[in-house]
Automatic annotation (TrEMBL):
<dbReference type="GO" id="GO:0004521">
    <property type="term" value="F:RNA endonuclease activity"/>
</dbReference>
<dbReference type="InterPro" id="IPR036866">
    <property type="entry name" value="RibonucZ/Hydroxyglut_hydro"/>
</dbReference>
<dbReference type="InterPro" id="IPR026360">
    <property type="entry name" value="Xnuc_lig_assoc"/>
</dbReference>
<dbReference type="InterPro" id="IPR050698">
    <property type="entry name" value="MBL"/>
</dbReference>
<protein>
    <submittedName>
        <fullName>mRNA 3-end processing factor</fullName>
    </submittedName>
</protein>
Amino acid sequence: MSLIELTDHGLYCPQAELFIDPWKPVDKAIITHAHADHSRWGMKHYLAHHHSEKVMRLRLGSDISLETMEYGEIMDINGVKVSLHPAGHIPGSSQVKLSYKGKIVVISGDYKIEDDGLSKQFEPVKCHEFVSECTFGMPIYKWEPQAIVFASINAWWKQNTEQGRNSVIFSYSLGKSQRIINNLDASIGDIFAHGAIWNTNQALISNGVPIRDIPKVTAETPKSRFKGALIIAPPSAMGSAWMKKFAPFRTAVCSGWMNIRGAKKRSAADIGFVLSDHADWEGLITAIKSTEAEKVYLTHGSTAAFGRYLEEVEKIQAVALETLFEGEAADLADG
C-alpha cells in the first residue's frame, strides 16, 4: 500500500484523492508553504496553514478557494487522517502528515531546524516514510547560529553609516526578509522595505505573524530619509533604476549559497551573508533521523550524493524524486 506517488502533476495521495504542492492545476491541493515553487495558481481548492492564508491570497488572488488549519489539527479525508506540523522554514510552513490504516507518511516541504524566532520551530514527526528536501545536502554546507550572522549584518550596516553610505540588503520577499527585519538593530538607523516586501509584511502581520512594521519606499519618500538607513529589497531590484535613490550605498545578499566563494563573486553585491531558510547538512541528517523513517524520498538538491550517504552510513533507504521544487536555487533572482 502506497500513500504517496509521484505523478506528472506532483505528489499524490490516491486514498485521499489530493495532491501535495502540485505544479499543475488539480482539484484538491495541500500547500506546505506559500513560496512560488510550492504554492501555484490554478487549483480548484487549497488547504494550508492559517499563517499562509493572506500571503497566498496576495500572490494567487483574493478569490481562491482556500481552507486553513492549525498545527496539530486533524482532518479526515476519505479515511486518511491529515494534519499539519511545523516545518520551521517560513511563517506558516508545514509538514503534511498522512495516516492511513496504521501507515504514516510525512511530506516535509522545505524546512530548517534552527529556531528563527519568527516561524514555528521544526517539529520531528515519527513516520514510516519521510519526504525531505536536500537543497544543501553536502557536508560543505554548515550554518552559523543566526545570532552570529545578524551580529555581522548589523556591524556591516553600522560601518556603512559611519562611512556615509546607505545599506541595501537583497533577500527573499517571503520568510527571509521578515527574519532579517526582526533582527536588525534599529538603533543604528531607519529601516525601509521595497514595496513587494512591504506588501508581504502587511499580509503576514494581518495574519498574526509578529513582524516589525517598517515603512515602504515610495516615490514621495525624501532621499534625505535614507541617510544611514538600511533598505530590504528583493533580488530582482538589484541593478535596477529603483536603486539610484539610495546612492551612495553598499549592497549585501543573504543566502545559503553565499557559503560558496564563487557564488559571492557572481552575486554582484558588495558582500554576502550566509543565511538560509533551509537546513544545512547536519540539520538534514538530524531531522531525518528524528523521524525514525524506514524510507526517505529526496527532492531538489544533492539527491544522489545525499541519498548515498543515507544508505551507506545511516542505513536508511533513500529514493530520489524528480520534482519541480526549486528550494533556494532561485535565491539570487526572487522567491
